[in-house]
Amino acid sequence: MEVKGKVWRYGDNIDTDVIIPARYLNSFDPAELASHCMVDIDETFAQKVQPGDLMVGGKNFGCGSSREHAPIAIKASGVPVVIAASFARIFYRNGINIGLPLLEIGDAVEKINAGDVLQVDTTAGIIKNLTTGDTFKAHPLPGFVQDIARAGGLIHYIKEKGSL
Amino acid sequence: MGMNMTEKILARHAGIPSVEPGQLITCKLDMVLANDITAPPAIKEFEKVGRPVFDRTKIALVPDHFTPNKDMKTAALTKSVRDFAKQQRIVNYFEVGHDAGIEHVILPEKGLVGPGMLTIGADSHTCTYGAVNGFATGVGTTDLAVGMATGEAWFKVPAAIKVELTGRKPKNINGKDVILTLIGMIGVDGALYQSLEFAGDGVAELSMADRFTIANMAIEAGGKNGIFPFDAQTKAYVEGRVQAPYEPVAPDADAQYARTVTIDLAALTPVVAFPHLPGNTKRVADIGRIDIQQVVIGSCTNGRLEDLAIAAAILKGHKVHPDVRCIVIPGSQQVYLEALAAGYLKTFVEAGAAVSTPTCGPCMGGHMGILTAGERCVSTTNRNFRGRMGHVDSEVYLAGPHVAAASAILGRIAVPEEVE
Ligand code: SF4
Fold first, then answer.
1. Which residues on chain B are in Cβ contact (under 8 Å) with A63?
2. B246 shares its domain with B306
3. In chain B, how many domains are there?
4. B264, B292, B324 — which closes off a domain?
């Protein structure tokens, strides 16, 4: 999948309580979750995010709780891919399982700033920063995890294949 | 090549002789857990798969986060879990009151998780069950849905960090000091994609309650799981409790570890993790005066009988500071009853603490003690992220029950020795 969008830039250790605070977990409606996404550190995000915008974070993005509400809130905000230096483990697998591509690029993430426009090939993991001219390559997804991503998430994969 | 404890459990459940770090495998599950927040969306995904649960005895559903339900929306969520449990005839559904409690307190307590077993839970602190020599890890709702339908999950075999515990544990130190010290050393992403394997002579110094507290917070270092070896204490804990057949694991002599971290228990002092990360660990002796308005003693980290015993011993004959609200939450009905019989609850109420029915309560900002702007809380819970217990401008300081109780009396962060 090829996407192009403007960057919302966040720092290290963005935790799932920040992505979607627990007080909003009395619903799992994606649109409702999206309307509160990131509020505790960035009140403008939920109001101003445009479909196709990209989210970029630092180290250990998505740390904390296992709530799948977090990647769902981001995906339902219209963000097609999240790029970070590294992802917390449960968030990473949740992203794959719900069909939200997550690209890990290590310290290279420092070269992406808020408002930059990126062109991203989510399958090949190629990120072009159209604002600065830099190009980055993300670590590829391992083995059959690629098949899960290609199927559009784990549920689709299980329905297609019948088992893991 | 030898295997460590995590690798042995994963290999056994994948039905293959050996595994190595980085390998992708599919494993059979012994227990699949969800709560009132994560079960409802998982049930919706489960229904898309379109088949019955793989084994109605191997699923645990625990409404504990927003219960007793705090509002109509959460009541509806819990009802959907209750209805699903009835419809699928789930054996291990734990209704509020009855014999319920916080998921990670009751699953080990009721013997639903044991040595060598593999558990996934749609809750990040599922890693708690490493204390009884099991492999247990948190997953999201989609993994949970597929786990309930197929009895399987995919894993990437993690590399392991060996945490070598040495020395004798001083009397005023408990599991919380150990794990907060470790996270302070390696950082909140120090064990990212890795397992924490505890080893060394120091393990025998730790009670089962200490081990639950430590394994519980493996995730706070980014770990996939944390696991303790099986010893005489584990045996005494699980015997007669775990009904399913179980087979403990021990690391091979030539097991592989990515690195080793050593902690000398004898050198530990009481610590506290400053806002807003569990790795902001400082010695209480070094922090100066920090006034507080609330203390929370409870949660899946420190809501066990031993934790309440530590707090009660300090609070006995004292009063909670007039400027502090002290909230005590037993982790399960059984803990509640035992604390009642031991007189701890009386001690708490006489000291001026509020004693709650078992629930997650304020731990993740649900209810029962939410903070407003500018307030500070010393809490025996496991996370102090921004806004975790309420307002984004409130602060949570993580500590063990000893520091929490002493702080409640003095109205500032303190160690028990400071209480007259
Ligand atoms: S007590 Fe806190 S950390 Fe434990 S399960 Fe409940 S909300 Fe999660």
1. 188-189, 222
2. no
3. 2
4. B264
Pair (B309, B244) in one structural domain: no
In DSSP notation, B343-397 reads THHHHHHHHT-EE--SS-GGGGTSSSS-B-TT-EEEESSS---TTTTB-TT-EEE
Q: Is the dihedral of CA B65, B67, B69, B75 positive or negative?
A: positive
Q: Are residues B113 and B251 part of one domain?
A: yes
**Is there a contact between B154 and A164 if contact means CB atoms under 8 Å apart?**
yes
- Indicate whether B234 and B161 sit together in one domain: yes
* Residue nearest atom 4 of ligand 1, based on CA coordinates: B300
Q: What is the ipTM of this complex?
A: 0.91
C-alpha triplet B25, B42, A104: angle, nearest 5°: 50
- B285 and B253 in a single domain? The answer is no
- Is A25's Cβ below 8 Å from some Cβ in B? yes
Among B34, B25, B36, CA closest to B59: B34
Q: Which residue has the tokens 């697998």?
A: A93
Q: Are residues B46 and B170 in the same domain?
A: yes
Report the C-alpha gap between B248 and B264 in whole angstroms. 26
Q: Does B64 touch chain A (CB under 8 A)?
A: no
The CATH number covering residue B138 comes to 3.30.499.10
Model confidence, pTM: 0.96
Token pair 């559904």 in the structure block, residue: B93
Compute the CA torsion angle B338, B403, B187, B115 (nearest 10 deg): -20
> What's B87's DSSP letter?
H
Q: Exposed, middle or buried, B17 (CB in 10 Å: 0-12/13-18/19+)?
A: exposed
Minimum CA distance residue for ligand 1 atom 5: B300
CB-CB neighbors (< 8 A) of B74 in chain A: 26
Asked whether residue A142 carries a pLDDT value surpassing 80, the answer given is no
Answer yes or no: do A22 and B364 touch at CB < 8 A: yes
DSSP string over A25-56: TT---HHHHHTTTTTTT-HHHHHH--TT-EEE
The amino acid present at B159, given as its one-letter code, is: A
- The whole-angstrom separation of Cα A84 and Cα A106 is 7
* CA separation for the pair A160, B333 (Å, rounded): 44
Mean pLDDT for all residues in chain B: 97
**Do B194 and B288 share a structural domain?**
no
Amino acid in position B345: L
- Å between B122 CA and nearest CA of chain A: 6
Out of A18, A93, A159, closest to residue B386 by CB: A18
Final residue before a domain boundary, out of B246, B264, B282: B264
Please determine, for residue B104, whether its predicted confidence score (pLDDT) is greater than 80.
yes
Taking only the tens place, the pLDDT of each residue in B179-190 is: 999 999 999 999
A21 contacts in chain B (CB < 8 Å): 365, 387
Give the domain range for residue B207: 5-264
Spatial contact of A130 and A7, defined as CB atoms under 8 Å apart: no
Confidence band, pLDDT 50/70/90 cuts, at residue A149: confident
Element (H, E) at A84: strand A82-84
Ligand 1 atom with the shortest distance to the CA of B124: 8
- Nearest-CA distance A83 → chain B (Å): 17
